[in-house]
Amino acid sequence: KPLVFSGVQPTGNLHLGNYLGAIKRFVEMQATHDCIYCVVDEHAITVWQDPFELRRQIREVTAAFLAAGIDPKMHIVFNQSQVPEHAELAWVFNCVARMGWLNRMTQFKEKAGKDRENVSVGLFAYPSLMAADILVYRATHVPVGEDQKQHLELARDIATKFNNDFSASIVAQGHNAEEGYFPLPEPLTQGPAPRVMSLRDGTKKMSKSDPSDYSRINLTDDRDAIAQKIRKARTDPEPLPSDVEGLKERPDADNLVTIYAALAGTTKEAVLGDHGGSQFSAFKPALADLAVSVLSPINDRMKALMAEPDHIDAVLADGSERAGAIAGKVMDDVRDIVGFIQSR
Ligand code: ATP
Ligand code: MG
């Protein structure tokens, strides 16, 4: 079976975009792939996190994985910092990746803003660590939201350069010259909602780090909060169009229809077939009911899991041990390939 790797940062405020763009698809891939799902706590600290909050947030992302239906026995669920090989391979990749490549990353530009001199070195090197997360398992399939496509391209560039830079040594270690050591990982962004937009601005992605809580539906929001946020979502004054063509140049309307379709497991065409011509005053309550019906069972299971932190920690410890067994072997190969000396 092909190997899948993906991760979510424990930076608080897990939202509908994380669910539709990532976690829901993690659940679906379990049937056809071997899956490794990671709470990427080392990525989270590229921006300062309160240690007392961070621990809770790591457990909350884990709870969301389990509540959504990820099976930690059939697959692997763990947190990044318990498997030191991620950071170790990231260092090697920092020495493979070029400054110019990382300079082009739009996520860095957006997150650093104008004050580039004062963001962490880690925020800049983030994509090297992400490449290591995937390649330390030699994973080939990476379900992510559309915003992560550029980082996946970079992971492929790093894998390609590593394979070239060390080709003689890779062959000397008994690996195939054509294939190289690392596979080129593929982004899987073709879900129904690869880019859920902010409820306040249909041209910006829904994000954990958006200062306005009204911009997103959190997985921990209750029925009233969900209904209120959808009621206040920005829209234009026109009724819904009768076909998808009519959503062009209407990003806020397009976003709500996309969310509806993804939650209902149907297409935008079908949603407009039922709701075309409706005013938002009628469509929004229907969307709110649908969102509550999908999210509240997940929310209930998350709450129950969060009441048992020891159980969550045990799941992470078990997953980390199994992940570490794979990563340890790959890192041994990498040390040999690069030319380090290690005890056997
Ligand atoms: P942050 O603002 O801290 O970066 P985030 O909301 O971008 O948080 P991440 O933990 O960085 O969340 O991303 C986890 C996964 O969710 C990734 O696969 C990412 O592509 C996906 N994702 C994030 N936001 C969206 C969105 N608005 N629509 C679809 N997928 C998304
Ligand atoms: Mg992000």
UniProtKB/TrEMBL annotation:
It catalyses: tRNA(Trp) + L-tryptophan + ATP = L-tryptophyl-tRNA(Trp) + AMP + diphosphate + H(+). Gene3D superfamilies: HUPs, Tyrosyl-Transfer RNA Synthetase. Its EC number is 6.1.1.2. It is found in: Cytoplasm. It comes from the Bacteria. A motif ('KMSKS' region) lies at residues 205-209. Its main location: cytoplasm. Keywords: Aminoacyl-tRNA synthetase, ATP-binding, Cytoplasm, Ligase, Nucleotide-binding, Protein biosynthesis. ATP binds at Q9, P10, T11, G17, N18, G145, E146, D147, V196, K205, M206, S207, K208, S209. A motif ('HIGH' region) lies at residues 10-18. PROSITE patterns: AA_TRNA_LIGASE_I. GO terms for molecular function: ATP binding; tryptophan-tRNA ligase activity. InterPro entries: aa-tRNA-synth_I_CS, aa-tRNA-synth_Ic, Rossmann-like_a/b/a_fold, Trp-tRNA-ligase, Trp-tRNA-ligase_bac-type, Trp-tRNA_synthetase. L-tryptophan binds at D133. One of its GO terms (cellular component) is cytosol. It is an enzyme of class 6 (ligase). One of its GO terms (biological process) is tryptophanyl-tRNA aminoacylation. NCBIfam families: trpS. Catalyzes the attachment of tryptophan to tRNA(Trp). Belongs to the class-I aminoacyl-tRNA synthetase family. Homodimer. This is Tryptophan--tRNA ligase. It comes from Pleomorphomonas carboxyditropha. The lineage of its organism: Bacteria, Pseudomonadati, Pseudomonadota, Alphaproteobacteria, Hyphomicrobiales.
